[in-house]
Amino acid sequence: MRYYPNGVSKSNPTHSDLHVSTPLTNISVGWAQANQGKYMAQGLFPLVGVNKKSDKYYVWDKGDLLRSQAQRRAPGAEAAVGGHRISTDNYECERWALARDIDDPTRANADPAVSNLDARATQFITDQIELAHEVEFVTDFFAPSVWTGASSTSDMTGAASPASTAASFMYWNDAASTPIQDIRGELSAVESRTGYRPNVLALGPQVEDALADHPDIVDRIKYTGGGAASVDIKALLAQMFGLDRVVTLRAVRNTGTEGGTDSVGYLAGKHALLMYVTPTPGLDIPTAGYTFVWTGAGTPLQGARIKRYRLDRNESDRVEGERWTDFKVVASELGAFFSGAVA
Description:
Layout: E1 2-3, E2 9-10, H1 15-18, H2 22-34, H3 41-44, E3 47-50, E4 54-60, H4 62-66, E5 86-92, E6 94-103, H5 104-109, H6 117-140, E7 156-159, E8 168-170, H7 179-194, E9 200-203, H8 205-213, H9 215-221, H10 233-241, E10 245-248, E11 252-254, E12 264-266, E13 272-275, E14 289-294, E15 305-311, E16 316-329, E17 335-339
Parallel strand pairs: 3-14, 7-8, 7-17, 9-10
Antiparallel strand pairs: 1-2, 4-5, 6-16, 9-13, 11-12, 13-17, 14-16, 15-16
């Protein structure tokens, strides 16, 4: 029995009751992968597919793992017995969803150039879900008071004339600043406290621009054999600091209300974040964070689940997308945050 919003019921199944469109999901996965250069949040933490919407995971005690417990063993004596404590934490995947209706008159009247309305709706929905995840990641994790791996176990803070404290540094758009030393200092700070050296650097767009123009960086570029215009600044920074990846959060967002004045700007602030993230998620493997994706609902690991069904009463086809995710900080000490890296 199907029920519509006004209470009307319908006992006979329609086409939409019997079929969920797999090709639309394929389009969604492809679209999400094609937009990796625009939306980076989904790939900053390692993706972990989970069969349960919510569950627990193990957390090993860092102090026990880094404490030296092996001892010399004399002939005939027993080996020293060691171990480590273990606790649990939990994740909770939440559903992000959006739908778009295509009414029959619109479909019938569409010109050939814009007739692929299902694919266009799929792209729009997937893009919107990706943007929502980007907003969530930037708001919750590319922000102050989250990470504890920096020198002072608090955020590093940029300033025009920094005080002589371990948590201050000069804005990197100032020619007198020392971004190379600042970043290397925090690489060592995280490593000295955890045993893991950060391998990912995430930047706000203005921060990448400032580093590309900084005289210390430009001085390094001249030894690469090409001019500044031919150098991939992110690849250069990754090589300079021994990182696996340098990514820039370049997504833009309109915060203006519908029908009002648009207010479009970069989503990420003028910050930088160093993290260690494992390339191989698994047991006994530390990482700054994970992105849990519930695949039990039919959601692909890399993209949104897209379905299309008929709204007979409205003479429309509905294209609807959803993804179940939970961004989770697993070890805050594996990240060092530069708050306000440029003025």
